[in-house]
Structures are given as structure tokens and as C-alpha cells.
TrEMBL record:
Residues 13-106 form the OB-fold nucleic acid binding domain. This is Exodeoxyribonuclease 7 large subunit. Heterooligomer composed of large and small subunits. Its EC number is 3.1.11.6. NCBIfam families: xseA. The keyword Hydrolase applies. Its main location: cytoplasm. GO terms for molecular function: exodeoxyribonuclease VII activity. It catalyses: Exonucleolytic cleavage in either 5'- to 3'- or 3'- to 5'-direction to yield nucleoside 5'-phosphates. It holds the Pfam family tRNA_anti_2. Keywords: Coiled coil, Cytoplasm, Exonuclease, Hydrolase, Nuclease. It is found in: Cytoplasm.
Length: 407
């Protein structure tokens, strides 16, 4: 235990100092502990704090539960209740009073229930019943919802009023069942199975808040397995925000309260109407845009559209132009070829032996019919054929004169 340094014996302590030292000693000596007893002298202060005493047959101790803790309790304390409180041992210095600061409180005997709750939760979690991958989404636009609860439950009124306000178009089917007491668990499971076989789109499982004993039916294994076996998604709206049951872990969706479960189950009608209005506006804008695009494309096609008579006339003009160009090309080719022919004809005339003969020359061929170019290619007495521009002569070689002598 931590030691607190006290002044020397001859020092005079103020009352404030003494009380502070006592408080420090107590709070350091005692950790948070569970203390059991009976509530008496209970007072709910206007500040929200709760003051009471815990007593047993031999003693009592003053207790305080601050407002922040009392608001999350979920049930109301009463004189004479047997409870178990998780408390910090403390000392109220201004009045020099020993007291317990209460962190949490439960009805006596609930410790065993809580242990059962933890064991079952661990077992079902190990089997995969709480696996997030198994959870199913809620329908976006449910036409009908199933409610599993007691017809006398205040939670039912909350759910129905919320659904009527948010989604009056959604039909409701009630599957009544007791929500606490002996045999409530199996009957809740049977109601869930009946709802799952209906034509509803989702199931709301709900009841109001209470102690762990009041909510115990929703901690039974048969209820958890019925939720998992349901073909419809299940929303659990059991108890207050601080209450947790096995049904909450098994359900596809957990809501903090029955009202929150109704809000999850059905989208608000006004939001849907607003969404539809936005979608309608978007579709209208899209339609107008597409119509404008089609009109623009039509205008472009219309600008390219030509009357058949006009198209035929254009074709005729094209044909006439092609015919004119073809005629010009033909004439040019004809003129070009005629000029080439004339040039070739002129060249041939220059090479024509007859043309040479007309200028006074003669073509002399020897006995072998070849043209004579050299006098040494014939002999004296050979017959020669002499061709003139007009007529031919027959002659014989009488003398051969050498080139040097001919000059």
C-alpha cells in the first residue's frame, strides 16, 4: 500500500489537511471493488446526482452516484432494492464523511447472469454467428415490415408512431410475443421464424429498456439462432443505448433504441420524395440535353441533304466537265502524236534512199545484191545494177580504179 507522509507529531494539522490526508489514504488503499447491500435513504437530487446508503444487517455506508453515471443506468433505483455496486472508496472532505463513489450498479444476483451472457456470447461468436460477413443489407424501399414484440410494449407504440411519421406508405405486420418472463425466449424465436416466412421485407425485433433480468429473453441461444436462420434481415432495437443483448450481436443491424430501429428500417417519405424530385429533374435535364443533341445532328444532316433533281444536275455538270476535259486531253494527245509522227516521217524521209537518189545519186549493187561501198569488193567483168531516181541501169565493170588513183 502506498505510504502517505504525515507531519511530525508535534505539528498541528488543520481539519482540511487532515481530511485530505484521510481521503488520499483511503483512495490509494482500496481499488475499485464490488460492494453488495440494500438501498436506503435514496435521494434523486435536482442536479441529477443520486445519493443513498448501502446497508446490511451489521452496518451501512453513504454512497453517491454522479449524474454522468446515473444517466446511463437504464433503470430507476428504489429503497429496499438489493444491489451490487462497483465503487471507489472515498472521503468527502467538507463534511468529513466516509463514502463510496458509485461507478456502476446492478441488481443483486445479476453477476451470475452476466457471466452466463459472456459465456454464451463467446460460444456463438466462435461459431461465426456474429460474423460481419454474414450480415445482410436492409432493403432500400420495403413495402411491408414485420415487428416482433409484445402488443402491450411501449416500444411498439414508439415504432409505429415513427413509421407512420416517416413512411406511412409502408405496411406493417405484427407478430406478437411476450418479451420477458419464463418461456419468453422460445416464443420470441417462434415469432421471428413466423415473420421470416411472411411476405415482409425486413424484421424489427424490439422492446423497451430494463435490467439484465428484464432483457434476459433476448440473451437466450434460441433467439440468436432464430435471427441467424431468418431469410429476412433483422434489426434489433432492444433496450436503451447502453443495453446490449445476444440478439444485438446476432442481428443484421443493431439500433440503440426501438425508435432508432424504425428509422433504420424505413427511409423517410419526405426524403424519398425529395430524392425522386431530384432524379426527375436530372432525367428531365438529361432528356433535354439529348433532344438538343439530336436536333443539332438533324440540322447538320439537313444541311447536307440535297434535292434529287439538284443532285442529278450536279452529276450532269460533273459529267459534262469530265467530257470536256476528256476531249481536251484527247485533242492534246492527238496533236502530240501527230507532231511526233511528222517528226518521225521527216526523219524517215531523210533516211529514204529514194530521196537521196532524187538529188542525183545512184544506188549500185554488186552481183550478190549488196550495195557497193568499196571498189575492191567487185572484180572486172562483174555485172552491176544501178538504180536511179527514175529507172535502173545494167552495167559491167570494165576497170577498177584504186582510191589513191581516183583522187
Amino acid at each position: 500500500m502506498p505510504e502517505t507522509t504525515l507531519p511530525v507529531n508535534n505539528s498541528v494539522l488543520s481539519v482540511s489537511t487532515l481530511n485530505r490526508l484521510v481521503r488520499d489514504c483511503l483512495e490509494s488503499a482500496f481499488p475499485l471493488s464490488w460492494v453488495g447491500g440494500e438501498i436506503s435513504n435514496l435521494t434523486y437530487a435536482a442536479s441529477g446526482h443520486v445519493y443513498f446508503s448501502l446497508k446490511d444487517a451489521g452496518a451501512q455506508v453513504r454512497c453517491v452516484m454522479w449524474r454522468s453515471r446515473a444517466q446511463t443506468l437504464g433503470w430507476r433505483l428504489e429503497n429496499g432494492q438489493k444491489v451490487e455496486a462497483r465503487a471507489l472508496v472515498s472521503f468527502y472532505e467538507p463534511r468529513g464523511e466516509f463514502q463510496l463513489n458509485i461507478e456502476a450498479i446492478r441488481r443483486a444476483g445479476q453477476g451470475d447472469l452476466f457471466e452466463r451472457f459472456l459465456r454464451l456470447k463467446a460460444q456463438l461468436e466462435a461459431e461465426g454467428l456474429f460474423d460481419p460477413g454474414r450480415k445482410r443489407p436492409l432493403p432500400s424501399f420495403p413495402p411491408r415490415l414485420a415487428i416482433v414484440t409484445s402488443p402491450q410494449a411501449a416500444a411498439l407504440r414508439d415504432v409505429l408512431s415513427t413509421l407512420h411519421r416517416r413512411a406511412p406508405h409502408v405496411a406493417i405486420s405484427l407478430f406478437p410475443t411476450p418479451v420477458q418472463g419464463d418461456g419468453a425466449g422460445p416464443r420470441i424465436a417462434a415469432a421471428i421464424a413466423a415473420a421470416a416466412a411472411s411476405d415482409c421485407a425486413a424484421i424489427i425485433l424490439c422492446r423497451g429498456g430494463g435490467s439484465i433480468e428484464d432483457l434476459w429473453a433476448f440473451n437466450e441461444e434460441c433467439v440468436a439462432r432464430a435471427i441467424v436462420a431468418s431469410r429476412l434481415p433483422v434489426i434489433s432495437g432492444v433496450g436503451h443505448e447502453t443495453d446490449f443483448t445476444i440478439a444485438d450481436f446476432a442481428a443484421d443491424h443493431r439500433a440503440a433504441t426501438p425508435t432508432a430501429a424504425a428509422e433504420q428500417a424505413a427511409p423517410e417519405r419526405q426524403q424519398l420524395l425529395a430524392l425522386l424530385a431530384r432524379q426527375q429533374q436530372r432525367l428531365q435535364q438529361l432528356g433535354q440535353r439529348r433532344l438538343a443533341d439530336r436536333q443539332q445532328a438533324l440540322d447538320w444532316l439537313r444541311s447536307r441533304l440535297v434535292h434529287p433533281a439538284e443532285r442529278i444536275e450536279r452529276q450532269r455538270q460533273t459529267i459534262r466537265e469530265l467530257a470536256r476535259r476528256l476531249q481536251q486531253a484527247g485533242q492534246w494527245q492527238s496533236t502530240r502524236r501527230q507532231m511526233k509522227l511528222n517528226a518521225l516521217n521527216g526523219s524517215l524521209k531523210q533516211l529514204d534512199p529514194l530521196a537521196v537518189l532524187s538529188r542525183g545519186y545512184a544506188l549500185v549493187t554488186g552481183p550478190d545484191g549488196r550495195a557497193l561501198r568499196d571498189g575492191s569488193s567487185v572484180s572486172t567483168g562483174d555485172n552491176l545494177d544501178i538504180r536511179l531516181a527514175n529507172g535502173r541501169l545494167a552495167a559491167a565493170v570494165t576497170q577498177i580504179v584504186a582510191p589513191s588513183q581516183a583522187d
